[in-house]
């Protein structure tokens, strides 16, 4: 060893004791951030000095461990704010301290979960088995832990597309096939994006009108399918949403399943956050027809609070799933024994070969808290949304803009004599001020042509008092502006 040249010293620490001390201090800082998640501002813009610190030329020589730890620690105050109880924007999970431990463990293992026979493979299978059970999928269903619902949707719809074309599309492409699919007008943009990425074109995803509760109108779905068949197109899939991003609406999943079955179409469910509401006994019936889906895409990083990122795709028919992706060249050939065993490999169910051990933080969240406690947090968020809706309804300064079936409440601040674009602008400005002043972080959306303040509760740290404070702040800003 003593004869090794200096360059051969590798990348491990020179001084393990010093490295350990640094690592412990950084872990303490990270835990401190999480312990104080309720304190202080919601969002703090990234300061200019920090932007400059991350705008440096490519370094030839490293910082060294102490300076590196300092720079890592300096990042901690500058998240988007989704670990704070008054983060209400978009759909963000709020994370857990417990998940840090899984991330550290996964990082220490440095596992490549694309395949082969090692622990990560079995942990991921456990997660997929639990998800099958949770959503009533058969034991023969397959699945994959992925980055999020966007990726899960691409995988699910690729299986649907290829199955419809008898897998000829895998080699020959789409040829003259003119496939079309259906989702509600309120469906998430990731669905049309998947159509785009899969070569179907975003326009091939027909947007079906919704009723006054923002749920897909099944009669309109039936006539859209009939019109497309009449026009010589090939319907292949219907996407039902369990929890829309704008208002938390859930399409009539059982009715959509019936239509898909009658027409021989693939039934996919986008359950990004809403599907997990199936954990709440009173809400379960609304989501029970997910069990009839051919595929489901949902996230762990939203309403299960797994630290970013982690989502999941489940496919009812494992053989279709595998046929849409499997492709084992010689250098990835499986064996019955040895490290190349452990078949089938995850690479056979998705586009990625090398992939991290996301499944461990998911396993840790489910094993560590159990479904009852995770479900309770979801139930509380729904009660809070109903509480907020009632307060909005009882106060003439506010107007509620949509039903609140789940965890999202959309409303406006009203000013006598103000309407149209001026009222839109006022509400948009209120939201920006709330964010800039670090008071709260709702987001905005447009419903039936008007801008609204959108409060999404996928936050296990939110308390009722945070909602009271939000309405106070909205009213104070609204009257000051
Ligand atoms: C967030 C969301 C998505 C996209 O999921 P990602 O995890 O961000 O890729 C899709 N659909 C709905 C309803 C969502 O809320």
Relevant terms:
single chain, alpha/beta, Aspartate Aminotransferase, domain 2, 2 domains, seven-stranded mixed β-sheet, four-stranded antiparallel β-sheet, 11 strands, 42% helix, binds pyridoxal-5'-phosphate
SSE topology:
Layout: H1 16-35, H2 48-53, H3 65-75, H4 97-109, H5 119-135, E1 142-146, H6 149-164, H7 169-172, E2 179-184, H8 189-197, E3 205-208, H9 218-230, E4 234-241, H10 253-263, E5 266-270, H11 284-287, E6 295-299, E7 311-315, H12 318-325, H13 358-393, E8 398-400, E9 408-413, H14 420-436, E10 443-447, E11 450-456, H15 464-480
Parallel strand pairs: 2-3, 2-4, 4-5, 5-6
Antiparallel strand pairs: 1-7, 6-7, 8-9, 9-11, 10-11
Helix pairs in contact: 1-3, 4-13, 5-13, 6-8, 6-12, 13-15, 14-15
Pyridoxal-5'-phosphate binds near residues 91 and 272.
Report on the architecture of this protein.
By secondary structure, this protein is α/β, with parallel strands linked by helices. It folds into 2 domains: 14-78; 95-481, 3-Layer(aba) Sandwich (Aspartate Aminotransferase, domain 2). It has helices at 16-35, 48-53, 65-75, 97-109, 119-135, 149-164, 169-172, 189-197, 218-230, 253-263, 284-287, 318-325, 358-393, 420-436, 464-480, and strands at 142-146, 179-184, 205-208, 234-241, 266-270, 295-299, 311-315, 398-400, 408-413, 443-447, 450-456. Bound molecules: pyridoxal-5'-phosphate.
């Amino acid at each position: 060893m003593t004869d090794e040249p200096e360059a051969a010293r590798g990348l491990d620490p020179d001084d393990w004791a010093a490295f350990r001390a640094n690592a412990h201090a950084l872990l303490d800082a990270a835990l401190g951030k999480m312990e104080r998640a309720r304190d202080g501002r919601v969002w703090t813009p990234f300061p200019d000095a920090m932007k400059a610190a991350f705008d440096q030329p490519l370094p030839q020589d490293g910082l060294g461990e102490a300076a590196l730890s300092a720079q890592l620690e300096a990042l901690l105050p500058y998240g988007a704010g989704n670990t704070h109880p008054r983060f209400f924007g978009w759909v963000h999970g709020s994370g857990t301290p417990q998940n840090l431990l899984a991330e550290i463990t996964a990082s220490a293992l440095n596992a490549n979960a694309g395949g082969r026979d090692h622990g990560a493979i079995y942990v991921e299978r456990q997660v997929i088995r639990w998800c099958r059970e949770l959503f009533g999928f058969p034991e023969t269903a397959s699945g994959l832990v992925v980055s999020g619902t966007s990726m899960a949707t691409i995988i699910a719809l690729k299986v649907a597309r290829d199955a419809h074309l008898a897998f000829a599309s895998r080699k020959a492409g789409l040829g003259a096939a003119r496939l079309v699919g259906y989702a509600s007008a309120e469906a998430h943009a990731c669905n049309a994006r998947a159509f785009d990425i899969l070569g179907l074109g975003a326009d091939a995803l027909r947007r079906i009108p919704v009723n006054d509760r923002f749920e897909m109108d099944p009669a309109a779905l039936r006539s859209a399918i009939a019109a497309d068949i009449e026009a010589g197109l090939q319907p292949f899939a219907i996407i039902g949403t369990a929890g829309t991003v704008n208002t938390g609406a859930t399409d009539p999943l059982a009715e959509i399943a019936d239509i898909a079955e009658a027409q021989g179409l693939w039934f996919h469910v986008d359950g990004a956050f809403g599907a997990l509401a199936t954990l709440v006994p009173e809400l379960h019936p609304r989501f029970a027809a997910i069990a009839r889906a051919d595929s489901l895409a949902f996230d762990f990083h939203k309403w299960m609070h797994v630290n970013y990122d982690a989502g999941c795709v489940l496919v009812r028919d494992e053989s279709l799933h595998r046929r849409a992706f499997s492709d084992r060249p010689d250098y990835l050939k499986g064996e019955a024994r040895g490290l190349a065993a452990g078949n089938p490999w995850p690479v056979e169910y998705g586009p990625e070969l090398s992939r991290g051990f996301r499944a461990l933080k998911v396993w840790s969240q489910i094993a560590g808290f159990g479904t009852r406690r995770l479900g309770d947090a979801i139930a509380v968020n729904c009660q809070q949304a109903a509480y907020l809706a009632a307060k909005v309804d009882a106060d003439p300064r506010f107007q509620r803009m949509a039903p609140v079936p789940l965890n999202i409440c959309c409303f406006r601040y009203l000013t006598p004599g103000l309407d149209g674009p001026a009222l839109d602008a006022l509400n948009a400005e209120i939201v920006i001020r709330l964010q800039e002043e670090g008071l709260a972080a709702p987001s905005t959306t447009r419903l039936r042509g008007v801008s609204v303040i959108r409060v999404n509760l996928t936050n296990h740290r939110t308390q009722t008092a945070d909602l009271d404070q939000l309405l106070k702040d909205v009213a104070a800003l609204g009257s000051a502006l």
